[in-house]
Amino acid sequence: MPDPILEIDHLSHEFAGGNGIHDINFQVYAGEFILLAGPNGSGKTTLIRHLNALEHPSSGGIRLYGRPVTANLMLTRKTIGMVFQDADTQIVGDTVAEEVAFGLENLNTPRAQIREKVDQTLSRINLSHLKDRNPATLSGGEKRRLAIAGILVMDPEIIVLDEPFANLDYPSSRHLVETICRLNRDGQTIIVATHDVEEVITLASRLLILDDQGHLVRDGFPAELLGCLDRFGIREPCFSRMGYTAPPWQT
Amino acid sequence: MADLTLFSFNAGTTALHDLDVRVKTGLVCMLSMTLFFAGFFACLICFLALYPLIRSQGLTLLHLILRLKGFLLLLIIMAAARAVTVPGEPVFSILDVEITRQGLAQGTLVAARFFLVMVIGMLFAVTTRPADLKSAAQWFLAPVPFIPEKRVGLMISLFLRFFPLILAQAGQTADAVNARCGSFRKNPVRRIRSLTLPLLKKTVMAADHLSLAMTARCYSENRTDPAFNPGGKERIFLIAGAGLCLGMVLLSRESVRMIFW
Amino acid sequence: MPETNTAVSQTDNLRPMVHAALFVALISVGAFIAIPIGPVPIVLQNMFVLLAGLLLGPVWGTACVAVYLLVGMAGLPVFAGGTSGIGKLFGPTGGYLLGYLPAVLVTGALSRFLGKTGFRDILAMIAGSAVLYSIGVPWLKLAFSLSWGQAVSMGLAPFLLGDAVKLAGAVIIAKKIRPLLKE
Ligand SMILES: Nc1ncnc2c1ncn2[C@@H]1O[C@H](COP(=O)(O)OP(=O)(O)O)[C@@H](O)[C@H]1O
Ligand SMILES: [Mg+2]
């Protein structure tokens, strides 16, 4: 087995009142598509915000290629790109192209290189036709893909998405699933945090389950964990509830 | 709600739209400063020179007067005040108030200057993308010591993001308050509170979320400089603008003397 | 390792800067929000300026007002009634706009110096308003060649009642919003 990209080691984050996440351990390897599932309030958002050092742990730590994530924050955040849940309050630029360029401008990339990479990324994620639009006028699905483009442009090793399917209609969700899937097939490591696994469970290579107390209770192959999801407050996907076997698994 | 289209950007492809924003800003500053000591003829020449540009934006003198009517009223009052208070040879008098020739001349001149500065400002606003404005501000502030121009640039960007958001939310909050019969509330302090507090809470949370998202995207003050897109006619505009200012200064020497002595 | 759950930020002044930019927008929108009280509707703009002093402190408060004046001068429609430009800034009512700068500085500095209770907030805001009018009124007097009596009755007296209401509102708002800005 190759070395992991990320190692989460006895990570705990205690909020006042007993909430938080407790003693989390797992590793992330290149090329994985990890689904982090759990009911609302189980600590998914809290956990993934530790991955790029947006939050301090109460105890334990995270290593990126063997070094603590806090050692070089710029490098950590460039390597682990994060798409937040709320699509509207993560947009900085006032055109689509400027929004995508923001990350590269922060890295002080020369302007010509920025233009090239932005064009490349926009066409990769099917947003080229909206290049000069004001992001505020985009649809929910387009905003979500714009957010992905904004971090993809920085060539991250891992892309983390927090509840990417919340508040999307069916066609937008499908389009987003296809986009994520395509990135993963191209070798991109993906982590998706969600309370509803329906959309993506057949595509994921690994399923992590957080219970409502903030403990990591399962870590395994999605097909093997079907049937025990209800117990942890996660809705079984439709085919599993109806008693069918899983549709052909994609790996 | 006030009419926001008054001074706001109007997409287009006119020569003024294509002009490099730095040149445009420079010309606005140059002309405004020249106008502050311009005489009658200089003002007239300036207006004549600007008129084709005004027309190029699809505007006429009537449009200008209608758009600026509130400000024009202020200017007329200001001119009238001068006409009666500046001492000099009386032209005529109404109800014991003497209107002097010098006062009339000075009042009209001051009003004309302000009117022109206002027109120039409007032309600039109508033809300049807000994002370019941010780039220009950053570029001009760069050589000024002790001013962190990149931070100012980013603050302008963020402001441009928040402004429409807050304007829309202020409208929504007002509607919500009215729906709960808030408009019948007599106590004005509570009315301010019920209008402003939800707005502030919501937007502060959005702002915090935004700063977290920016941190996650490696926000840094050592960033790539903004890009500019010159349209190709910068030199012509600069020469024409400089010529106009020079002409105005030469003309003004005469008229300034005529008014004050 | 600290126990508090503060976000680790490499650039510690990002968050106050975003808040300051938010207040630039609030001050601008304040020119459009009017609340009908008595015969003259009151506009909330100067309340947001004073709040910027109380909530952001003297340095970021002043930066916030400076950026507001800059974008207004550069042509964005953020001055009263959706106007903008150098003409407005140096026009007859420009003193009230330029006066925001020392007003927010005084309010912010006093509030930092005195401490943050309702009563002290009021004191800081009264001082800030006094500074504002001490620039706005003489400016108006010069522009219209008025006597002092006329200038005060045109440029100060009509606003006092509305300002008292706004100060009372601002104290409540400052108390509720301060914890949100702290973390
Ligand atoms: N800043 C905070 N202070 C106190 N409690 C918090 C804070 N942030 C989150 N929590 C609590 O931690 C738990 C996990 O929250 P979160 O990570 O947002 O869950 P999820 O994303 O899975 O819905 C929740 O019970 C929430 O109320
Ligand atoms: Mg969450």
Q: Can you tell me about this structure?
A:
The complex is a heterotrimer of chains A (251), B (261) and C (183). Chain A has 251 residues and is α/β, with parallel strands linked by helices. Chain A is built from 8 helices and 10 strands. The two termini of chain A are 17 Å apart. In chain B, helix 2 packs antiparallel against helix 6, helix 3 packs parallel to helix 6 and helix 8 packs across helix 9. Chain C is 70% helix and 3% strand. Chain C contains 8 helices and 2 strands, in the order αββααααααα. A two-stranded antiparallel ribbon of chain C has the order 1-2. Chains in contact: A-B, A-C, B-C. Chains B and C meet through helix 2, helix 5, helix 6, helix 7 and helix 8 of B and helix 1, helix 2, helix 3 and helix 8 of C. The structure holds adenosine-5'-diphosphate and magnesium ion. The site of magnesium ion (MG) has 5 residues of chain A, from helix 1. Adenosine-5'-diphosphate binds next to helix 1 of chain A.
Short characterization:
Chain A has 251 residues and is an alpha/beta fold. Chain A has helices at residues 44-51, 73-79, 96-106, 111-124, 140-152, 170-185, 222-225, 238-241; strands at 6-14, 20-28, 33-37, 59-64, 67-68, 80-83, 158-162, 189-194, 206-210, 216-220.
Structural class per helix/strand content of chain A?
Answer: alpha/beta
What would you give as the CATH superfamily of chain A? P-loop containing nucleotide triphosphate hydrolases
Helical content of chain A (DSSP H or I, runs of 4+): 25-40%
Instruction: Report the span from N to C terminus of chain B.
Output: 47 Å
The figure for the number of domains of chain A is 1
Instruction: Record the strand order, biggest sheet of chain A.
Output: 6-7-8-3-9-10
Report the average pLDDT across residues of chain B. 82
Bound molecules: adenosine-5'-diphosphate, magnesium ion
Major sheet size, sense and barrel closure of chain B: 2 strands, antiparallel
C-alpha geometry of chain B: globular
Form type of chain A: globular
**Helix coverage percent of chain B:** over 70%
Q: What is the helix/strand order of chain B?
A: HHHHHEEHHHHH
Weakly predicted, low-confidence segments of chain B: 1-6
Number of strands of chain B: 2
CATH architecture identity of chain A: 3-Layer(aba) Sandwich
Q: Largest interface, per-chain counts? A: B-C, 70 and 61 residues
Query: How many helices of chain B does DSSP assign?
Result: 10
- Report the average pLDDT across residues of chain A: 91
Structural class of the helices, strands and pairings of chain B?
Answer: mainly alpha
Total helical segments of chain A? 8
